[in-house]
Design a protein that fits this description.
With 238 residues, the chain is of the alpha/beta class.
Length: 238
């Protein structure tokens, strides 16, 4: 009797520490024939992948890992073509009865760039499933020793496209604000810190990785280069 085709699993790896993956996510990776994960290409042509490193730390063999890169520029045509080509490749593997997983850092459904791939595969009529994980801002709370929200507090998660004016308004309204994609709003962050000295600014880089960094020192934050894996949690004055 023919076995039913398994779903394509979008597996959340968590923020970086391999031990923060869920048991369900790990089982999906172990069961996969191939695991697709994002990589970056440096200016000198060297390919690197945090996701691939996490997979290897989990005991996943290189023979199962397939990395893909996306053009990083404002012209989205090249990136969309890359996603479409990748979706076609995964479809071929899927229809040959291979068990496919797609790995995503953080949570696969939270500001995840692979969401476009998820939609492409779904629109092809393929079975897709997302396995939840730990987003970086949740893992950041224990690093700082803070309770992210309590009692009647409200949490707002925003991308780095927020303006200084919008951010100040949210702080004054009593929100605890998490800013993802922090490099997009470096100047706005400095302005907000200067104008809201009573607020608490918790700055994080590379949560749960070997090069993890955390500080609340505003002077230090202003001097940081704000790498890709940085975020901030802002708490209003208590």
């Amino acid at each position: 009797m023919e076995q039913p085709q398994k779903e394509i699993q979008f597996v959340s790896l968590g923020p970086g520490d391999p031990e923060l993956i869920t048991v369900k996510g790990l089982k999906a990776l172990q069961d996969a024939s191939y695991i697709y994960c994002p990589a970056t290409l440096s200016s000198n042509g060297i390919r690197s992948s945090h996701a691939s490193n996490t997979l290897q730390a989990l005991g996943i063999g290189n023979d199962k890992i397939r990395t893909f890169t996306l053009p990083m520029n404002k012209n989205r045509e090249a990136a969309l073509k890359a996603y479409n080509d990748l979706a076609d490749e995964i479809e071929v593997c899927y229809k040959s009865n291979q068990h496919i997983s797609v790995a995503a850092e953080g949570d696969a459904g939270f500001y995840a760039s692979i969401q476009y791939l998820y939609e492409l595969l779904k629109n092809k009529g393929l079975q897709v499933k997302r396995i939840a994980g730990v987003p970086a801002f949740i893992a950041a709370g224990p690093v700082a020793g803070i309770h992210l929200v309590k009692q009647e507090e409200r949490l707002l998660v925003v991308p780095g496209t927020i303006t200084a004016e919008e951010l100040t308004e949210k702080i004054h309204s009593g929100y605890v604000v998490v800013i993802m994609k922090l490099p997009l709003c470096g100047e706005a962050i400095i302005e907000v810190m200067d104008k809201n000295p009573d607020a608490e600014f918790h700055y994080f880089e590379n949560i749960s990785r070997d090069n993890e960094f955390y500080t609340t020192d505003i002077d230090i934050i202003k001097e940081r280069k704000l790498p890709y894996f940085s975020l901030m949690i802002i708490s209003p004055k208590q």
